[in-house]
Design brief:
By secondary structure, the protein is an alpha/beta fold. The chain has a single domain, classed as NAD(P)-binding Rossmann-like Domain (Rossmann fold, 3-Layer(aba) Sandwich), CATH 3.40.50. Helix content is 46%, strand content 14%. The chain has a seven-stranded parallel β-sheet with strand order 3-2-1-4-5-6-7, with helices on both faces. β2, α2 and β3 form a beta-alpha-beta unit.
């Protein structure tokens, strides 16, 4: 009897935060998990059951080598979670350094592009699979002081919709998740930088972001992970080309408190 096929999932930036939550949720659902990250220490702390690779998502040579390893070890891929991203600079547009802009756009946009570029042939060959790109509520609403991040997160939605068109004839789906503010160390750092730029406190900003949603709350990484598992599952077999916010319904992305 042939061994039962186990769902094969690659998650970029999977050693912490949203990516780590995704990896945990997919493994709990029975999948094989492969995570990448630039943080070797974070990767080392991941469960031994996960395959792990230290890769800069914006480095094409590294990404190409990664997919070569995936092909050899797994023979293919069922789901790509293009999750890598950085917050980038927090400043008004005239104060943003071009190199800081380029690095933010490179990791958030080019990282998703490169992962998709190398995953697409695998998914098309087997005529099945899913791509889940992590965008942001900032990708559907503007956010002052975050121009490069916002620009990149809007752009990955265009990338996703193009992938949905190109891959659809091969029974491969593509969708984007737009998290609202997610509790965790990364958001704490973002709030600290934004508070400094705006001359206020992280506590005031946190309260403002929560009040800027209908449900009055921040999001947990596990909420994003649950949506990713659903979008990669047969239950979402006809869900493609969609932008799905998991944010408690943001009504004001820049509340003044």
């Amino acid at each position: 009897m042939a061994p039962e096929h186990r769902h094969r999932v690659l998650i970029t930036a999977g050693a912490s935060g949203i990516g780590h939550a995704m990896a945990s949720a997919f493994e709990k659902d029975g999948a094989q998990v492969w995570v990448t990250d630039v943080d070797a220490r974070a990767l080392a702390s991941c469960p031994a059951s996960w395959r792990r690779s230290e890769v800069d998502s914006a480095d094409e040579a590294g990404v190409a080598a990664l997919f070569g390893e995936i092909g050899e070890a797994w023979g293919g891929l069922d789901t790509l979670c293009a999750n890598a991203g950085i917050a980038g600079p927090t400043a008004v547009v005239e104060d943003i350094d071009l190199e800081d802009w380029r690095r933010c756009v490179s990791v958030n946009l080019e990282g998703a592009f490169l992962a998709s570029k190398y995953a697409a042939p695998m998914l098309k060959r087997q005529r099945a699979g899913a791509v889940v790109i992590t965008s942001s509520v900032a990708g559907i609403m503007a956010n002052p002081f975050r121009a490069p991040y916002v620009a990149a997160k809007w752009a990955v939605i265009g990338l996703m919709k193009t992938l949905a068109m190109e891959l659809g004839p091969f029974n491969v789906r593509a969708n984007a998740i737009c998290p609202g503010p997610v509790n965790g160390d990364r958001m704490d750092r973002v709030l600290a930088k934004e508070a400094e730029s705006k001359g206020t406190t992280p506590e005031i900003l946190r309260a403002g972001y929560a009040s800027g949603t209908s449900m009055g709350t921040f999001v947990e990484a596990s909420d994003i992970a649950d949506m990713a598992v659903f979008l990669a599952s047969p239950r979402a077999r006809l869900v493609s080309g969609q932008v799905i916010a998991v944010d408690g319904n943001t009504t004001n992305p820049d509340p003044q408190v």
